[in-house]
Amino acid sequence: MKILFTFFNPSGGMETLNRIRSKALMARGYECHLLYAVDGEGRKNIKGIKTFVTNDNEEIKRIIESEDYDIIVVCTDIHLLQKVKEMGFRGKAVFEIQGLGTTDTALELLKVFDSGIREYADALLYPRTSHLKQWFEQIFPAIPQFCFDDPLDTEHFGYVSYPPKPYPIIGWIGRIEQNKNWSEYLRIVFELRKQIPDLYLWMFDDDTLSDPSQKDYFEFSVRTLNLSERLIRYSNIPHEQMADYLSIIGDSGGFLCSTSIKEGFGYAVAEAMLCRCPVLSTDSDGVKRFIKHNVTGKYYNLGDIKHAVGESLTLMRNRGLRNQIISAAEQHIKSEFSTSIYCDQFESMLSRITR
Predict the structure, then answer these.
(1) SS3 297
(2) Which of 16, 73, 331, 335 lies 20 to 30 Å from 81 when distance is taken between CA atoms?
(3) Does this model's pTM top 0.85?
């Protein structure tokens, strides 16, 4: 069976998801290809998977006809879903949603998607995220739906030991845009530095995908909060190296701070936990699958800087609780989010929509 996974660009969580699931399914005998509308920095992570990069309709049609796919999984791009069907594709088209940003943005997009999903989608696929599940079951009850966790490469991506840094590091992973809520991260670290002056900030992002309207505000905020000398910004780190950075953050006595307003799945959080880097996060919905407060991580109330600082200090100073959280989090990811579990569920979906 041949499967094509599509997205706008190879970056962030979608690049990770498509690469991990393609390799896992290929190991089970499926032939998996990737199609991206435009190129991106994350393409350098892709090895051994046939990948197309084009937004040209004729070229897309040629690819679909020549490769003769059985299944095409179209993530978020409702226009591509329509084009695929109108190009004469006779296999099954699965429309996938992994996260649509803030609640207001998501609901607006669903209005845009509504007619296209009803007419062209043979099935819907999304992670176990309560707001996505609620919306799709209410809006599209007649369309077959499949809801299961995304996979992590628990066999090859994980903790790496390095000499510990002589200062604690607070990490952040995302894009400079509204939903990732970078400004809250800066305000939390600003307050933390009053009590821990030698603190460092490591921010990981894809600078090519930052919201242009927020770039100047970001630079202004860093200067105003006097964080420039303590901030190290990493752009487009190869994915396999992120395990090293996350492990170093954890061993420094710091943590990953996730400030997102809404997340569909939250790869950054799950990967940090897999690398023994504890996490402080907003309750952004998708991370509920990973974090149980004071068991596998910590929550703080969105917008409540004082609460975030208090939870941060507990996570950094209560060594017994910190070590318990680190061990429980790593084990939780390994046991619940393996590629084997994902492939079993994906194959179950295939059997239902192709019979």
Answers:
(1) strand
(2) 16
(3) yes
